[in-house]
Structure formats: structure tokens, C-alpha cells
Amino acid sequence: MPDAADDLAGSVRRNASDASEVSLNRSADSAAWRVLGAAITRPRPWLRWLAGITCMALVVAMFWLGSRPGAAAFIPTPPWDRLLHFVVYGGYATLAWVASGGRGLHAVLVALAIGFTDEGLQSLAPGRTADWTDIAADAAGALVAVGVLGALRRRLAPVVGS
Description:
- This protein has about 160 residues and is mainly alpha-helical.
- About 80% of the residues lie in helices and about 0% in strands.
- It has five helices and no strands.
């Protein structure tokens, strides 16, 4: 006949088993994030090419769509357009970071070149205007993206073997 000590021992074994299962799940999740982080911060050549081609395709699409008549109707009004610039140019900087193999300065310069070109084209398009605050939002988005990627690289450095 089981007594209270047997019940307690069984409960402790079940709790220890549950805790080890949770620990295994957390380590698996952590490993998956580390692999993803390593892929982004230390990209392989095929991923670098893919990021570069994707960035160029998105830039060409943005320039082409932005030059179409009536494009101004799809642009959000301030302050939402600044947030859009921040996010989009942070994305361009991320793609440029991956394409350049993790060179932060190159990524920021690529994003700024795209931004200046976009503002120049906007000044030529009917119904659109160029604005220095858009360039500031572009630069901020690129700098934040590169900063986050640099911090991620430093955090993963011991794992990746740098």
C-alpha cells in the first residue's frame, strides 16, 4: 500500500521530468534562434547573393512604382510616412548587410544611396516632393538595423566561433 512518501517521490520525479522537457524545448528554441542569427550575421555566399538580388529587385520596383502617375495617393501622410521610411530603409540596410557579408558601413551607405536617389526621383515626379526628413528617417532606420545586427553578431560570436 503506497504511503505519502511514495506519492511525494512520484510527484518529484514527474516534476523533474516536466522541468527537463521544458529545458530541452527552451534549448531547442534557443538553438534555432542561434542558427537563424548566425545565418544572418555570418551569411553563406548563396544567401549573400540572394539578399543582394532581393534588395535590387525591391529598389527597382520601388522606383518604378513611385514614378507611376497617381503614386502619391498610396503614400501615407506624416508622421506615418516617416515610420514607413524608417522600416523600409532598415530593411534595405539589413539586405545590404547580408549581401556585403556583415559590413555595417557598406549597409548604411547603400541604404542612404537608395534614399538620396529616391528623393531625387521624387522631386522629378509630378505630385511628389523631396523632403530632408525622409532622408533622416532613412538614415535612422539604416543605423538602427545595422546596430541591431552588430549587437546580434557580438552576442553570437562565441557560438559561431568568431
